[in-house]
Amino acid sequence: MRILLWGALPYVAFALLVSGLVWRHRYDRFGWTTRSSEIYESRLLRLASPVFHYGILFVLAGHLLGLFVPASWTDAIGVRERAYNLLSLIGGTLAGALAIAGIALLVYRRRTNAPVLLATTRNDKAMYVLLVGSIALGMYAKLSHASFGHGYDYRGTIAVWARSLFRLDPRTDLMAGAPVAFQVHAVVGMVLIAAVPYTRLVHMFSAPLPYFFRPYLVYRSRGPLQERPQPRGWERIGA
Amino acid sequence: MRVMAQVAMVMNLDKCIGCHTCSVTCKQTWTNRTGMEYVWFNNVETRPGQGYPRRWQDQERWRGGWRLNRRGALTLRAGSRLARMASIFANPVLPGIKDYYEPWTYDYRNLVNAPLGDDYPVAAPRSLITGRPMAIEWSANWDDDLGGSVEHKAADPLLGGAGARAREIAEKVRFTFEETFMFYLPRICEHCLNPSCVASCPSGAIYKREEDGIVLVDQDRCRGWRQCVTACPYKKVYFNHRTGKAEKCTFCYPRVEVGLPTVCSETCVGRLRYLGVMLYDAERVAAAASVPDDQGLYEAQLGVFLDPQDPAVRAAAERDGIPRDWIEAALRSPVHALISRYRVALPLHPEFRTLPMVWYVPPLSPVVEALTETGFDGEDAGNLFGAIDALRIPVEYLAGLFTAGDPGPVRASLDKLAAMRSHMRAVNLGDAGGGETSQAARAVGMSGREVEEMYRLLALAKYEERYVIPTAAIGEAHGLEESVVQGCSLDAEGGPGMGGDVHAAGPFGEDSGRRRLPLVSLESFHVLRRRQTADDEGAVSAASPTSGPYRSDTAGDDRAER
Ligand code: SF4
Ligand code: SF4
Fold it and tell me: Name one GO molecular function term (chain B) (predicted).
């Protein structure tokens, strides 16, 4: 069980993420979109969506900082454990609160607005459960093991395990010793990561960074005219 | 000089009878799909009126097009790149479905299924967005023929503006509303030279085609950020709410590629649309779009166009790879004649700074009618010239539409149209010989022959003279039958076919990958036919979009059952 959860699952999740992205890019580029519902309802969305997205971006940054920046580095620039703990607690909680408030509003909007609800697929619903679940569990894990003096020092355990994954030498023992709340959060999080390419969350991988570096106008050539195979649904109708 | 070619359109508003044939045929061809119910790539609006979507011209509100920043450089009115990317999680100025209209159908089933009773069964309207019964309150042309305009007219952005002049026009229009001066304005995407939709797209999915200037959305690259919907000042990019992608008028490129006119042109009852090639200098585009004075934009855009009669231009065009038959088409282009030679066509809202490429011959009829009603001879040149002056309302209103408020070019154009009427009457009544320069012609600085040529183009409007469209490319002639188009152009990148891939084959050989496995299918002809011909409802719902109008089977993306 220990190996399965902390030694195998991370790799499975990562493999699913990468292969899912490749597969989606090859076979379903047309379905790769944010699937925005702003055209149906915009008043709530204009508040909730930025709140959620900025919140979750901060949460993401916090995770990267916490998991992949070793304590020795922060020590080196003179940030002591206590200061780090406070930063992590307050910053993390604020970001988490933003994300939770945002997604709560978004889910409320989805439930109460008829056109938006109609545009919600089963896939979306499952995705929402996973997403809300992992955020909520993360908040719970954090807050239930926190105090202003000395919080749970995940940088000595979970973070080391996370980094060890990249050395292909997972320190499963460290994770097995972590509090249950963190364990559950980690598992749900890994499932979420694996699910990203198969849900609308995939739009996070189209963050339009190249936009800042291209000229305003885009020209493209039509290319030579040629016969191409007909996609399904566009067969000739013999008219 | 870098010569580029564009297929452009001119519409002669004098002849538009507001029949909406163009809109309907366009819709049947391109947008009769789920997700696009509210979309009209071509729409015809009554002027004065709000238009579709409501008050689209009001850029204070919708923030479309370009503006000059403090340094005098072009920037999107919707905001800088950074500002727009910072607000990408919810577009602050996206028109909602109600700004277009909530699309509906009727519950026809009730007509046959209703239980026997004393009352006639009715087919109640049902929203195509929610599926619920709804009250119809607005549509794409609710104020058609000025219907309800006495209540709505304050909502015409051209009449609702601030400033003494706008108020004065508004007052006059209000005053003459009973005598009604009105005309129709058919609109499609302008396929601009400086398209703000292209500039706003974060994914780089919208592009202008090098060969013919058509602006298209690459459906495989669009990620549904909706920036283009805001950025287009003409509100001619639409969000497909089912697929989550932007779609827009394609200038019927599969037809144009093989030399056929667009559907709206082909079916236009008034035969008022002209299609032809414009040659322009791509290097002058940016400068022309950043002319400081709004009213200078019309002239500036004229300055971008090149005269194919000029041998130097033709040589440069050949150097820049414009095929010879395109250059020849440019020589015969009716669009070039109306825009640059006769200067009777004007751009729609040049002050948006996108350098639009669908131009309009302003309507003279409101003037003629007003004149005839007052008991004067509406075709007498003297009367007409005077009337164009005296009837300031139409001219100033038209100037608000076509020249950023400068009445000069509108007057000049209307004068030429008036002169044409008088000249042709003189010729027909034997007062002047054909080819002779009559008084009317002289008054507008044209020769009799020129006036008659313009008359031939505008009034007789022969099919071959209205549409001078070179085919996609010489040397590819073997593939240019229409049959090939059905197979290839529709699913080219950016096309509504959205299936094919023009890139080379994948690593697993020619037929690997998405060509054989298009996992997302939209409503197709077959689905539609099955739905129309199925006998029982079960078969219909198994095949129709109600059970899965947009299925992405792979992602387990079935829509919720209704
Ligand atoms: S009119 Fe057409 S080309 Fe011009 S900005 Fe709008 S969508 Fe783009
Ligand atoms: S089909 Fe022609 S005449 Fe009829 S509304 Fe359209 S542009 Fe006007």
Answer: oxidoreductase activity
To the nearest whole angstrom, how far is the Cα of B381 from the nearest Cα of chain A? 46
Structural domains counted in chain A: 1
Digit-coded pLDDT (tens) for B93-127: 999 999 999 999 999 988 988 898 898 999 999 99
Kindly tell me the burial class for residue B360, based on how many C-beta atoms sit within 10 Å of its own C-beta (0-12, 13-18, 19 or more).
buried
Pairwise CA distance, residues B169 & A222, whole Å: 46
CB atoms within 10 A of CB A108: 12
Find chain B residues with C-beta within 8 A of A120's C-beta: 560
Map out the domains of chain B as residue ranges: 270-466
B504: left (phi over 0), alpha (psi -120 to 50) or beta: beta
Q: Which residue has the higher pLDDT, B487 or B336?
A: B336
Options 3.30.230, 3.40.50, 2.10.25, 3.30.70; CATH for B270-466 is: 3.30.70
A28 assigned to some structural domain: yes
CATH assignment at residue A111? 1.20.950.20
The answer to whether residue A214 sits within a structural domain is no
Tally: H helices and E strands in chain A: 10, 1
CB atoms within 10 A of CB B461: 18
* pTM passes above 0.90: no
pLDDT tens digit string along B260-315? 999 999 999 999 999 999 999 999 999 999 999 999 999 999 999 999 999 999 99
For chain B, say whether A38 makes contact (Cβ under 8 Å): yes
Q: Indicate yes or no: CB of B520 within 8 angstroms of CB of A206.
A: no
Reported ipTM = 0.89
> A45 lies in a domain?
yes
Q: Which ligand is nearest to the CA of B192?
A: 1
